[in-house]
Write a structure and sequence with these properties.
Membrane topology: Single-pass membrane protein
Number of domains: 1
Number of helices: 6
Oligomer: single chain
Pfam family, one: LemA
Keywords: Membrane, Transmembrane, Transmembrane helix
Family: Belongs to the LemA family.
Largest sheet: none
Helix content: over 70%
Strand content: under 5%
Protein name: LemA family protein
Distance between the termini: 95 Å
Structural class: mainly alpha
Order of helices and strands: HHHHHH
Radius of gyration: 29 Å
Length: about 270
């Protein structure tokens, strides 16, 4: 009788220890998963900062175009002289107007790209708010139920899927911003006259800082993903992750080429 009681108590103690271990392991995985989500939000903020910087540069170029058109019009109205001089001025004005028109078309194209990126950023913010609302609702409504574990696993799967989709969207945004940056860089290389009106020193410093911010956010995200994935693969967390259907997170990887903007001052 005493032996049966001791055996029962030992079994109950073992089950209790297993439950405590499961809870601790699950909570650790959840904390690591939240860190991955927070790091993804940091990339979102860095991309937003980079978008603002590119938008300011596009506005400066548009302002330059307006100034140059006014200058051409004013010079044509004030200048007078021989027929040769008038013809030379007309040819110069035509060349300048054609150049400005080409720049204007390129800037309009980049503005359209920026509007698309702005819509994607807004959509990302909307999805983030929607996800937080669902997470808060789940936390507030967490009550014992027959299928509570199944609902919890499903919620975790949905959250992991949402993070994966967010990384896909952010990668696409990063690629689009690189494309806009490359387009602006091509403008400065093709039309050196932009350098004479717009000072690139300040922009280059700001662009470098924005890129450093983005790289820091990327490193932080990948570091958290690495720690999370290592934990998910090791015992005993791999057992908990398997039971809760928690999969490895994706690293944030983008094309390395054309990442930095470098103004051609020659």
């Amino acid at each position: 009788m005493n032996f049966s009681l001791i055996l029962g108590l030992a079994a109950a103690g073992l089950i209790l220890l297993l439950m405590i271990g499961f809870i601790l392991a699950y909570n650790r995985l959840q904390r690591l998963s939240v860190k991955v989500e927070e790091a993804a939000s940091g990339i979102d903020v860095a991309l937003e900062k980079r978008w603002d910087l590119l938008n300011e540069l596009l506005s400066a170029v548009k302002k330059y175009l307006s100034h140059e058109y006014e200058t051409l019009t004013g010079v044509a109205a004030l200048r007078s002289g021989t027929e040769t001089e008038i013809q030379r001025l007309k040819q110069q004005a035509d060349v300048s107007a054609e150049t400005l028109h080409s720049i204007d078309q390129e800037i309009d194209l980049q503005n359209q790209n920026m509007e698309k990126i702005r819509s994607q950023l807004d959509a990302q913010h909307g999805r983030g708010s929607s996800f937080r609302s669902r997470w808060e609702a789940r936390s507030q409504n967490s009550r014992p139920a027959p299928d509570s574990q199944r609902q919890l696993r499903q919620a975790d799967q949905n959250r992991n899927l949402a993070v994966s989709q967010k990384i896909d969207a952010l990668t696409s945004l990063h690629r689009d911003l690189n494309s806009v940056t490359a387009g602006i860089n091509a403008l400065y290389e093709q039309y050196p006259l932009l350098n004479s009106w717009i000072s690139l020193d300040q922009y280059q410093r700001a662009a470098f800082q924005a890129e450093e911010h983005l790289q820091a956010a990327r490193r932080l995200y990948n570091s958290n993903v690495s720690l999370y994935n290592q934990t998910v693969r090791t015992i005993p967390w791999v057992l908990v992750a398997s039971l809760c259907h928690m999969k490895e997170a994706r690293f944030y990887e983008v094309e390395e080429s054309k990442r930095n903007f470098e103004g051609n001052l020659d």
